[in-house]
């Protein structure tokens, strides 16, 4: 998860440090689901596959505690909340560059509607290329949060 980071709001070019790699993974997972509640079982299976559920749940709660504390100590306007049987994260004004990137890709696709008269194979190739860029960005964790 080398490409995931959160910029500190009051320290230019400084990033939030993580107590553990799993804390970072939980944060990235919740941001990937952005404001949509992620079920506890889904988080556990995604972050700790094959682990004893009781132990993994304890690890999850520990990571969430570390995450909340880190965000609060550095005045990062992001909150992690209990939501039903899981958790959600609110970016509270922060912007994930992957969300911005996906919006740009969607805009690119909307510029070339399928009915525009261009050759269908060219259009499908363009869609595949844009989709490939989106997949590559998500696969390589190209996510940075800047609270401003």
If you had to describe this structure to a student in words, what would you say it looks like?
This protein is α+β, with helices and mostly antiparallel strands. The protein folds into two domains: 87 residues, Winged helix-like DNA-binding domain superfamily/Winged helix DNA-binding domain (Arc Repressor Mutant, subunit A); 52 residues. Helix content is 51%, strand content 14%. It is built from five helices and six strands. The chain has a three-stranded mixed sheet. It has a three-stranded antiparallel sheet with strand order 2-4-3. It is globular and about 50 Å long. The protein starts with a strand and ends with a strand. About 5% of the residues have low confidence. GO terms for molecular function: DNA binding. It comes from Paenibacillus flagellatus.
End-to-end separation:
23 Å
Structural category is alpha+beta
Strand content: 5-15%
Shape call: globular
Query: Which CATH architecture of the largest domain would you pick?
Result: Orthogonal Bundle
Main sheet record: 3 strands, mixed
**Tally of strands:** 6
CA-based gyration radius: 18 Å
- Can you tell me the CATH superfamily of the largest domain? Winged helix-like DNA-binding domain superfamily/Winged helix DNA-binding domain
CATH class of the largest domain: Mainly Alpha
Biggest sheet, strands in spatial order?
1-6-5
CATH topology of the largest domain: Arc Repressor Mutant, subunit A
- Domains, number: 2
Average residue pLDDT: 78
- Specify the number of helices: 5
Unreliably modeled segments: 138-145
Protein name: OmpR/PhoB-type domain-containing protein
Organism: Paenibacillus flagellatus
GO biological process, one term: regulation of DNA-templated transcription
Keywords: Transcription, Transcription regulation
């Amino acid at each position: 998860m080398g490409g995931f980071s959160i910029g500190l709001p009051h320290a230019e070019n400084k990033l939030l440090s993580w107590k553990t790699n799993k804390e970072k993974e939980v944060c990235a997972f919740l941001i990937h689901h952005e404001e949509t509640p992620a079920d506890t079982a889904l988080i556990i299976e995604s972050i700790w596959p094959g682990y004893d559920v009781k132990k993994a749940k304890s690890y999850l709660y520990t990571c969430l505690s570390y995450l909340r504390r880190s965000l609060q100590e550095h005045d990062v306007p992001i909150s992690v909340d209990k939501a039903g049987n899981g958790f959600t994260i609110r970016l509270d004004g922060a912007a994930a560059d992957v969300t911005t990137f996906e919006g740009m890709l969607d805009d690119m696709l909307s510029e070339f509607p399928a009915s525009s008269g261009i050759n269908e194979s060219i259009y499908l190739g363009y869609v595949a290329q844009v989709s490939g860029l989106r997949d590559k960005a998500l696969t390589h964790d190209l996510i940075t949060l800047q609270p401003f």
